[in-house]
UniProtKB/TrEMBL annotation:
Span of domain HTH luxR-type: 765-830
Pfam families: GerE (PF00196)
GO BP term, example: regulation of DNA-templated transcription
Record SMART domains: HTH_LUXR
Annotated organism of origin: Propionibacterium acidifaciens F0233
Name this protein carries in UniProt: Transcriptional regulator, LuxR family
Keywords: DNA-binding, Transcription, Transcription regulation
InterPro entries: Sig_transdc_resp-reg_C-effctor (IPR016032), Tscrpt_reg_LuxR_C (IPR000792), WalR-like (IPR039420), WH-like_DNA-bd_sf (IPR036388)
Gene Ontology MF term list: DNA binding
Length: 832
């Protein structure tokens, strides 16, 4: 990003404000380029006109300016460099230069590169008053003129937080970025209290701090923002009251934040750019007349006092910044569990700030650092990740300090797990429903307390975040056991608690990103596509606000997009999906649906069946793979393999409403129309039936009534119920009899997709159409047993080349190209 690019990006915004006024002042520290930008903006609005330019760099220039004001005969531009104290005198001269403050004789534009906000009544003197906030680089501008990384909204947030969006700092920061190749310098924003690495941005911030610090030393409330930045006005007021030993109101904090060096990057709270804040703290600590050491002691007292309105997450960050390790260890002893709500970049930043050699005396810091680095291992990997993280962190806290909710849940969890049979999906579902009832009871009490107390303290907000985290884990458990309606209810309760308890993405980014991503997945999975799109957009907004991107929420958003009929996107390879990852079954299913629509039933069947083969070696419980069993059962029914479809219902992992739909699909293929209608009516009467399975059920009913004795208006009503083109994955699961009327209604473009075609040749051979010789069947059985061609040749007493030739002929008859596909096809056709 070149210097000229910054000026060119800022000037149009300024030109709009200057184009229709006679008097204006633009004042900001020189790092905002107020004079250069004003000059460029006037060129854009006026061209090379007759405006007189007066430059003031020294006290001797003020007299020349006074003469220009007295004798002004045309438009005037005043370029004022420094001389902060004398600026008010200039402004009084400007006021006196016109007959009337509102209708001047000639246009006067003042562009002042000053650190101190003028004390005069600017609104009385000028039509437009613009400060530093009008000259910052915002996220959209950075995306347009920034480097390649700027396409990521999370990276833009971090870059703007480090630099405050200040043009000079941002320019220097991006030059440092070029010099460091792939190193992500935006991580400096979580290095609380650490000076930036040497470079152009550190030099620019140091020069600014040298110039500004003498003035800020007389404004303690402003200077405190270098210690506790980007926190809300009430929090800042509470902390400042402790440090300054007098009552500070939020209104005073608001006035202090008018200082030109304090910016608001994005939607976060105002504060010094982190590059500048680090340098100001450094100067405070070496200044013998500075109250910095006193402030540090009082800041420690404030963080130890639970009556100060500061959440534990903020306490942990501030204690890290002032490097008070003993108090940080004590805070973690009671509040370590709040780290579960942190996003990954915050976790890694804290771990880095704590160092890699934690003394043995600070046991809680050492335990928490292991968690932050992700080197811990859960004792029960089959439980939802939010629960595992909370349980692990609570185990590291002092027993007497354990959060009451976590203590109760842990006791009930241990009792439930002691009687649980992991191979029984019904046991697991009963356990999940009992855990949900416990959490629902806590939610009711918590919301009642929220209603009673209008003023909520920071501890209440922290407790709300923990409860929402438990509910998010509960939603994961419900999703794993196919209780989708209960999962949506848990996320709904969590959202209600967050909304009523001031839990937001700024304070609890990991929690809020996780909730938005899970809502998007559930909406996509249940065919609520418009709702899924809204959640995906909301997730993008939260990323832009928090500057965080966590691996698991990103995975969930990709799954949600795939469920949302994003068929054109490039699919993942099987190597890119780990069968041990949470939500792997959903990701495999979503990719399988895309294959089903675009390439037909055979590739989808092979994809899903291959992952089921790998599932037996994964850490997930067998019943968590129910999405694959349900999809495969529908494909079996569609292709006429009715026995296979029925067999997939035997392990009980597919819930009752889905099992009824699969049975209805089998009955439709057999032509039992009345049975189909009866089964569908039972499905539609169940409150737990999701939108996608309700749509499939209606599609089966459409197949039962089409061409039957029922009036045409029933078929028409079913077709009008849904936008079938929005759920092609569901349409592709329907048997021909149901899919045909849907495709006639949605139009030709969809009928040409491989997985939706009805009249064209199928991609899957029927059992009767494929005949193998006895020798080919023997080879196929050998492949199914995992034998090599050489071993099969030895067992059959034949030559290896003969077996190789036999295998190639067998592949051709089955319509496949490799041994894995041949085995799957043979199993599907009942040959082995």
């Amino acid at each position: 990003m070149e210097h000229v690019d910054v000026i060119s990006a800022l000037a149009p915004r300024l030109a709009v404000s200057l184009g229709m006024v006679d008097r204006a002042i633009i004042h900001a520290p020189q790092e905002f380029f107020p004079i250069e930008t004003t000059r460029r903006a006037l060129e854009q609005t006026e061209g090379p006109g007759p405006r007189t330019v007066v430059t003031v760099r020294a006290a001797s220039d003020v007299e020349s300016l006074a003469a220009a004001l007295r004798d002004q005969s045309g438009p005037l531009l005043v370029e004022w460099y420094g001389l902060d104290e004398q600026l008010d005198e200039l402004l009084q001269a400007v006021l006196a230069a016109g007959d009337c403050t509102r209708v001047p004789q000639h246009s006067i534009i003042v562009a002042a590169a000053v650190d101190r906000r003028p004390g005069a009544d600017l609104d009385a003197m000028f039509d437009v008053v613009l400060g530093s906030s009008s000259l910052v680089i915002d996220s959209q501008t950075l995306a347009e003129i920034g480097p390649a990384q700027a396409v990521d909204s999370a990276w833009r947030f971090r870059a703007l937080r480090v630099t405050g969006g200040v043009p000079a700092l941002l320019e220097a920061f991006l030059l440092d970025l070029d010099a460091h190749d792939d190193r992500d310098l935006t991580q400096q924003w979580v290095r609380m209290g650490a000076l930036p690495a040497p470079g152009r941005s550190a030099d620019a911030a140091a020069a600014w701090a040298d110039r500004a610090y003498p003035r800020l030393a007389d404004e303690p409330l402003v200077l405190l923002h270098a210690w506790a930045y980007f926190i809300s006005e009430p929090m800042m007021a509470g902390i400042s009251s402790y440090l300054l030993n007098r009552r500070i109101t939020p209104a005073e904090v608001r006035r202090a934040r008018l200082n030109g060096a304090i910016t608001r990057p994005g939607t976060s709270e105002p504060g010094f750019p982190i590059l500048l804040a680090a340098q100001l703290v450094e100067r405070m600590m070496i200044d013998p007349d500075s109250p910095a050491r006193l402030w540090r002691r009082r800041l420690r007292m404030a963080m130890a006092d639970r009556t100060v309105p500061v959440p534990d997450a903020v306490r942990i960050c501030i204690l890290t910044m002032i490097r008070d390790w003993s108090l940080l260890d004590r805070v973690l002893a009671a509040s370590m569990h709040i780290l579960a709500t942190f996003a990954s970049n915050e976790r890694l930043g804290l771990a880095d700030a704590w160092g890699d050699q934690v003394p043995a005396v600070w046991t809680h810091i050492a335990y928490a650092r292991e968690f932050l680095l992700g080197t811990w291992r859960p004792n029960a990997p089959f439980l939802p990740l939010p629960w595992l993280e909370l349980a692990h962190l609570v185990d590291g806290e002092d027993e007497q300090s354990v959060h009451p909710l976590i203590k109760e849940l842990r006791g009930r969890l241990a009792l439930g797990l002691s009687t649980l049979r992991p191979d029984s999906v019904e046991d697991v579902r009963r356990f999940a429903l009992s855990a949900e009832s416990v959490l629902t009871e806590h939610v009711s009490r918590h919301l009642e307390a929220c209603t009673r107390h209008r003023r909520l303290d920071a501890r209440f907000t922290d407790d709300s975040a923990v409860l929402a985290m438990c509910l998010m884990g509960m939603a994961d458990g419900m999703l794993f056991t196919a209780l989708l309606s209960d999962a949506q209810a848990c996320l709904g309760m969590a959202a209600s608690i967050c909304a009523r308890s001031r839990v937001d993405v700024v304070g609890y980014p990991g929690l809020m990103l996780g909730m938005a991503a899970r809502n998007a997945v559930l909406s996509g999975k249940t065919a609520l596509h418009e709702q899924a799109r809204l959640y995906i957009e909301e997730y993008g907004r939260l990323v832009a606000i928090s500057g965080s991107r966590d691996e698991l929420p990103e995975q969930l958003i990709r799954i949600a997009s795939r469920y949302g009929e994003d068929w054109d996107a490039d699919g993942l390879s099987s190597a890119e999906i780990s069968p041990n990852a949470p939500f792997a079954p959903l990701q495999v299913e979503a990719e399988g649906w895309a294959l089903l629509v675009n390439r037909g039933t055979l590739p989808a069947y092979q994809w899903l069946q291959a992952f089921l083969g790998r599932a037996r070696w994964s850490d997930l419980w067998p019943f968590e793979w129910w999405p694959l069993h349900a999809t495969l059962a529908m494909i079996d029914a569609r292709e006429g393999r009715l026995h296979e479809a029925q067999r997939r219902l035997e392990d009980g992992s597919i819930p009752s409403e889905m099992a009824l739909v699969i049975r209805a699909s089998v009955e439709l293929v057999q032509g039992h129309r009345e049975t189909v209608r009866a089964l569908v009516d039972r499905v539609l009467a169940m409150s737990t039936t999701t939108s996608r399975w309700r749509m499939i059920a209606y599609g089966l009913k459409l197949g039962a009534v089409a061409g039957g004795p029922d009036p045409d208006d029933l078929a028409g009503m079913i077709l009008r119920l849904y936008d079938w083109s929005e759920a092609l994955g569901a349409v592709a699961l329907l048997p021909d009899a149901a899919r045909r009327p849907v495709l006639e209604a949605v139009g030709r473009p969809y009928r040409e997709l491989a997985g939706l075609r009805v009249d064209g040749p199928g991609d899957w051979p029927s059992a009767g159409a494929v005949r193998l010789t006895p020798r080919q069947v023997d080879v196929l059985r050998g492949l199914a047993e995992g034998k090599t061609l050489g071993r099969i040749a030895t067992d059959l007493g034949l030559g290896k080349e003969t077996i190789r030739s036999t295998a190639k002929q067998m592949y051709k008859r089955l319509g496949v190209h490799d041994r894995a596909s041949a085995v799957l096809m043979g199993q599907a056709l009942g040959m082995i």
